[in-house]
Amino acid sequence: MEIISILLGILAIGVIALIHEVGHYFFARRAGIKVLELSLGAGPVILSFEKNGTKYTIRPIPFLAFVRLEEEGEESVGKASIFQRFLLYIGGVFFNLMTAIILITLIGVFSGIYTDKVIVGDLIEDKPAYSILKRNDQIIEVNKAQIDDFVALEEELTKSKGSEVELTVIRAEKEIKLNIVPELDQESDRYVLGFFFAKEKLDIFSSFGNALNMIWITVSQTFILLGNLFIGQANPTENLVGIIGIVAISSDFTTKIADYMFFIAAISIGMAVINILPIPALDGGKIVLLGVEKAIGRKISEKLEYRLTIVGFGLLIILMVFTTINDILRLVGG
């Protein structure tokens, strides 16, 4: 891993963590709750300044952030209504999702997205496709088998086992036949033709709709995965990634601005999902306690809430230790 990729990975996590806390900060101020401190990072203070009664700080552990609120008096969290506290707790998740929506929308408008159509983009020199295919060619058949998406293309190339295949291609609105021999890519152990898929740029409204759809699918699949992990139908060592793991894969997304933006959006979605889980100490757990408070008509005792929070922190620490060890073993194992 290059040092610049590591730094960009850490920066992405820190920025998303700060955006999450700014969400809490925003709704706290709207509710009249006094914000004592908003910090980027954890540990001893490196830089700080104060404005309107709030201390803004930068601390050395860059992939964390926090907001500290008034706990006593008329401007405390406890004086806010249930609805105001709901907005306060959901604010970080909301800001994370909005960040992801904005980034994915911008990617669709300025860089474009991959579509289901198999359209040729950049060609790789010294690969089979370089002298046979042309940019913007659309592959619609391989050996007369219909090709509707990338998966279908990969399946047909795998079936070929490196023997010559016949492609049906749309080029300049005309349908032509081309013969080509797929090449086995040693790194991925897959048969390839040697080109990158083309992207399609969207107008802002289509891109916004695509962003909403992509986030909905991602969030849904993440919750399904978490559910499968909980009931033992998924392997945690294969599916859980911690901070080290996120930084480790950042090198795959830091060579192009659009890829880095997508990397940040993915982290933002992940942070939103994790924080909305109904675990004490997380935003989702606090929202559950608000629901209990609304149902029973009175606040939960501070002693019980404290105990639940300690349990929640314990679970998070165990999860953090597990993912950290898992990340290290994955890196060492290659």
- Bin the strand percentage: 15-25%
Low-confidence stretches: none
Report the span from N to C terminus.
12 Å
Main-sheet strand order equals 2-3-1-4
Helical percent range?
40-55%
Query: Could you spell the SSE succession in H and E letters?
Result: HEEEEHEEEEHEEEEEEHHHHHH
The biggest beta sheet reads: 4 strands, mixed
Q: What is the molecular shape?
A: elongated
Q: Could you give the count of β-strands?
A: 14
**Mean pLDDT level:** 89
The total count of helices amounts to: 9
**Could you say which structural class the secondary elements and strand pairing correspond to?**
alpha+beta
CA radius of gyration is 25 Å
Domain count: the total is: 2
Give a verbal description of the structure.
This protein has 334 residues and is α+β, with helices and mostly antiparallel strands. The protein folds into two domains: 3-112 and 209-332, no CATH class; 114-200, Pdz3 Domain (Roll), CATH 2.30.42. Helices cover 51% and strands 19% of the residues. The protein contains nine helices and 14 strands. The protein has helices at residues 3-30, 82-110, 150-160, 204-230, 236-239, 243-249, 257-276, 283-296, 302-332; strands at residues 35-42, 47-51, 54-58, 61-69, 113-114, 120-123, 138-142, 145-146, 165-171, 174-180, 183-185, 190-192, 195-197, 199-200. The strands form five sheets. It has a four-stranded mixed beta sheet, with helices on one face. The chain has a four-stranded antiparallel beta sheet with strand order 8-7-9-10, covered by helices on one side. A two-stranded antiparallel sheet has the order 5-14. Strand 9 (165-171) and strand 10 form a beta hairpin. Helix 1 crosses helix 6 (243-249).
